[in-house]
Amino acid sequence: MALKVKNAAKFVRGLSRARFIPHCGNGTFPGALTGVFGGAGPFDFSAAHAVISAVPISLKTDGDAAVEDTLDLSGFTEAAVTAANFVTAFTAASITGGYTASVDATTGRLKIVDSAGTYLQVYGLAAELAGFGRGIGAAFIKADTLESLSVTPDVKADETDTVTDANGDDTSCIVEGYVKGATGSIVDTAEDFELMRLFSGGEIDADGVFSMPNSSSEKPYFAIEIFNPVYGKGESKQGEQTGWQKITVLNAMGSLGDDSFAQSWRKKNYTYTATTYKDAAGVEETAVKYEYLTLSEYAALDLDNV
């Protein structure tokens, strides 16, 4: 391999921002055309009793404005709304924007797709109770207040299998280890209840109060997209970056860190564990991907609006 030419080298600086993307109910990565999956049902909509004839749901494709609507589930058994019932109510709502709901023939799970676009978010009370985002809604959480974020490979070490004969001579075989995934820690200088819920499986009630999870809570699975500015060799001003580095952690589960209170700014701590990722076709992918984006490719992501 040729020696890296310094003038072509990429120098990555700092941590700019991150985006957290809840997985679909079936553990896959959400997409507008491939679909966002919820649960298989039946679903208990008792928590929506007061608004059962108009349960809020929101849908957002890429950087488009969110489409906000309601579903009338009053004609079904409130504590046991089936996936087919949900599809019936969704279709009857005639939601604008090219969205279609169905019951996936393979998994039996709810599935919502858009006729165009890349990213699709499905959230609101109806989405949460129907298992989208494993019960928290499939809405992206963006953070530009992080102090640090680490990605550490989780490696099964090489193993040496050795036998020693009567003469004291060893015969050995080294069995190669492999990367099982990754672990990491995150420090946020701000506090975000949505991020706390994502990492813990806790709840946010109608009054905006966050409650820690209990023994029956399920943790959401999620992806993390990390964006860092890239510079060329030599002296550069802050605005003279040449591109962006994007790191994607594909299949993570998180935990909340300790809270400590003192005469200083309090920072929020999180940890996560990521494993290899299987896509909708069952094909296994790595737990972490690294790539470089041009300035125009990064701008097209429209992170502020997606």
* Beta-strand fraction estimate: 35-45%
Compressed to H and E, one letter per element, the order equals: EEEEEHEEEHEEEEEEHEEEEEEEEH
Question: What would you report as the Rg, rounded to the nearest angstrom?
Answer: 23 Å
Mean pLDDT: 88
- Assembly state: single chain
SS summary, helix count: 4
Helical residue percent? Answer: under 10%
| Helix vs. strand class | mainly beta
Number of strands: 22
Q: Which geometry do the CA atoms define?
A: globular
Give a quick account of the main beta sheet: strands, pairing sense, barrel closure: 10 strands, antiparallel
Distance between the termini: 39 Å
Low-confidence stretches: none
For the record, the count of structural domains works out to 2
Write the SSE topology.
Elements: E1 11-12, E2 17-22, E3 36-37, E4 55-61, E5 67-71, H1 83-92, E6 99-103, E7 110-114, E8 120-123, H2 125-129, E9 141-143, E10 146-149, E11 152-156, E12 159-164, E13 170-175, E14 178-188, H3 193-200, E15 203-204, E16 210-211, E17 222-231, E18 243-256, E19 268-275, E20 277-278, E21 284-285, E22 288-293, H4 295-301
Antiparallel strand pairs: 1-17, 2-9, 2-17, 3-7, 4-5, 4-8, 6-7, 10-14, 11-14, 12-13, 14-19, 15-16, 17-18, 18-19, 18-22, 20-21
Can you tell me about this structure?
- This protein is mainly beta and 306 residues long.
- It has two domains: 190 residues; 113 residues, Immunoglobulin-like (Sandwich), CATH 2.60.40.
- The protein contains four helices and 22 strands.
- Strands 1, 2, 9, 10, 11, 14, 17, 18, 19 and 22 form a ten-stranded antiparallel β-sheet that branches.
- Strand 6 and strand 7 form a beta hairpin.
- The longest helix is centred in the N-terminal third of the chain and has 10 residues.
- The two termini are 39 Å apart.
- The model has no long low-confidence stretch (mean pLDDT 88).
